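P.,

For your records, the input lines for the assembly:
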Amino acid sequence: MPKVNLNLTEVPIREKRLGSITGFAGTAGDLVNCSNSGCLKDGTRSFSQCMGCSSGNAFCQLSMIRDAAMVNHAPVGCAGDFFGFNFVYRVGQMERDLPPAIGRYFNTNIEEMDTVFGALSKLEKTIRLAYDRVKPNAIFVTTSCASGIIGEDVESVTDRMTNELGIPVVNCVCEGFRSKIWTSGFDAAYHSIVRKIVKPPQKRTNKVNIINFWGSDVFSKLLNRLGYEANYVVPFSTVSQLETISEAAATIQICPTLGTYMGAALEQVYGVPEIKAPMAYGLAGTDAWMRELGRVLDCEDEIEEIILEERAAVLPKLEEYRAKLKGTTCYLTAGSAHGHALIALLSELGIEVQGAAIFHHDPIYDNESTAADMLDHTVKTYGDIKGYNVCNKQAYELVNILNRVRPDLMIARHGGMTLWGAKLGIPTLLIGDEHFSWGYQGLLNYAERILETLDNREFVTNLAKHSSMPYTKWWLEQDPYTFLGGNTHVEAY
Amino acid sequence: MSKLIEQPRYSCALGVQQTVIAIQRAVPIVHAGPGCSTKIHGLLGQGEGYAGGSTIPCTNSSESEVVFGGEKKLRGVIDGAFKVIDADLFVVLTGCTSDIVGDDVGQVTREFQNLGKPIVFAETGGFKSNNYVSHDLIIKAIVEQYVDRYAPAKGEVIPGLVNVFASIPYQDPYWIGNLQEIKRLLTGIGLTPNILFGPESGGVEEWLTVPQAEFNIVVSAWPGLKSAKLLKRKYGTPFYHFPYLPVGGVETGRFLREVAAFGASLDREKAEKFIADEERKFYTHIERTADFMLEFRYGIPRVFYTILDATYAVGFSKYLLNELGIIPADVQYIVDDTPEQYREGIREQFRRISGRRSASVEFSVDGGEIQENIRKTSPKQRALILGSGWERDLAVDIGADLLPVSVPITYRLVLNCGYAGYNGGLRLIEDIYDRVLGTYR
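Structure tokens returned:
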């Protein structure tokens, strides 16, 4: 059953659409088996720490469209992430040689009286003012818990303003309380783009859409050689660029946790084929991914050549790194698909992955391809991961586990987590650029950074000596999953 | 003035979770949607401290709590927090979700209070106010629900003991340094200050002596006043109000002399000796570098803009004009959504900013609007902007030097830097001219 329905104002959340979960403790193999047999159950925690919410993830994509403005229909606190995303946006401009520009983000400042009488006129006023100040080519409106609970009919305003201003004014429904899985916000952003910005294709182009965050350009070289052109979406796109992504030859997603909905939407609605393969991390995954790309773009022979070349270029160095890293143990915490990819990558380097705390689990992606199941691929290729924990960023569980496992190295993908490794004196690494470890060269990049981190332990050793621990002794002695229970059944998908 | 906000410079009522974190070994428990805490931490604060950031216990309200109520979930999270987190005081804070659906958070908290647990609550749904306003709400909650209950000797006044309400932690990025200097100064004139927040305070133990103060000191345009009035009502503690941040020789001297005059138990002679000694040291530096300020021939700022909260805007303006000779631009901007009743007092401060000069002031919460105005009227002289990270492009475009003082500061890492008092005044000169001189090749 196709997952994409553009007639809906809001995209169904991942829990409902994909059967995604945020609570699980076991092995990676168990999780894959449960996922594949459709008997996955979610666990809920009776104690929890703060997470992120959909509105942040929606904003993270939409806020960097270069000629659009954002209106956040919310109390001012929800705009707390504006500057953080503006900062990321500006760093990305530097890296891509774009002129410096500030993010144009507006907050409607919902106050107490507005929760009683409604705030739609405020929203309308804010949209109009954003238009006057920025003269954008589109305006995206993101919703909030407050606007959602008081039942604001945002769509009526965005429709009216689209007519009045003559540019798309697009409703993006992403209230924080709607989903436990904050990546639902990506889906909300893409739903609004595919629904209201993307136009039906007039022709096919040689462009390949790459759904990504703000990482470095690793695709142009490969695609140019194959006669195609990389088209990075959504950050740093323009509105007119987004209008024509339906004409692309294919869609690549740098991470299915990010791009599952957009990839499927473009394929299901406009027939743009999506590359459905494991992510290009580790040799086996990269081979499989490259071959799928070759098949879709109809250049299988060239791909085989490239695979041979690249393997020959990296293998000797890889052997060297493997020898150095032999016997190293690692604990990992990351978002879903990228976490699976990092497990593959670490295994490829000969590092023993002792366990992983992964923020959520999608039993299937919107493209419904089993070939694209990265965890399945990783387990099959490299073997099971014993301490596999699906945990939506619960630092208390992580600290408990790290305190037991005491790995040689901790790798984190998200902010707020590295501290706990370091406080225990464990060298800890966070890499922001998700393209850094991509492909054959990515293995070497990562190995180098890991060796550097392992070698650099003075700071963490001293920090550990002088750190306080906000967790009780009692807690550190408990089973890490003490508060995980419930096993709420997830609807079959 | 528009109510909408481009470029926010403060948070919502729940932003006060950062006030709680600033009390040693106090931890917020947030009953709100899943993203609130993280967004607040993203704007207010660099680093999570003892148990802020990703450590904050939170119910992460979801659809089911919105539909069926979240009291049960909250009970579970509070119960877990007592087991898992090693803290002296927990403060339950509500967000938009729980306040709109009307969870009885007071009832849930009281169940734990009745068991003798150190826990208080406050309604801080984001739409209710902002973190400048709710800062006083939290102090009230702690005083009424915790201090009142556990303070050992409420009736006994300790001569020389003062409570200081001077800075909103994290909203003031320099709160640690400012409180450190204020504590040093007040100690210097012979007082024993309860500084209440940060590493210079004695944590929850110190809060328990709040009712015993001889008098209270508010160093702020308006936040903190409600707390001082509350303590006056409750314990009859008088308070002294200094309505801006004292920076540099003139204003710090004025502040300390007025405090010394207010406190009955103080040895004024000793206090005056301390002030004289501090002034001597401070002005040695000014005198030593005055030739630089007079002679540097390649251009230093001659006019300044403040885009700051009222406490900072007045304090910095007085110092820059009276002690550094930089002149206020026609309009100064105040971005803290100052309640109407305090605005006239602040205008008056600007009206008599020096013996011979006045400046006009505009209150706006919309940074985009402020920037548009400044671009339209940008001065001929080299300008200095005391604003936030949002002013980065504006400064480049009008050729101004920018010192980020207001959140989001982002382009600076702040440890114990502060701009209050004598030391802060010197530090401010260093930081301004560091940026100015850094522009020469």
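Two observations worth noting. Residues 488-493 of chain A have pLDDT under 50 and may be disordered. The domain at 50-196 of chain A is CATH 3.40.50.1980 (Rossmann fold).

Regards
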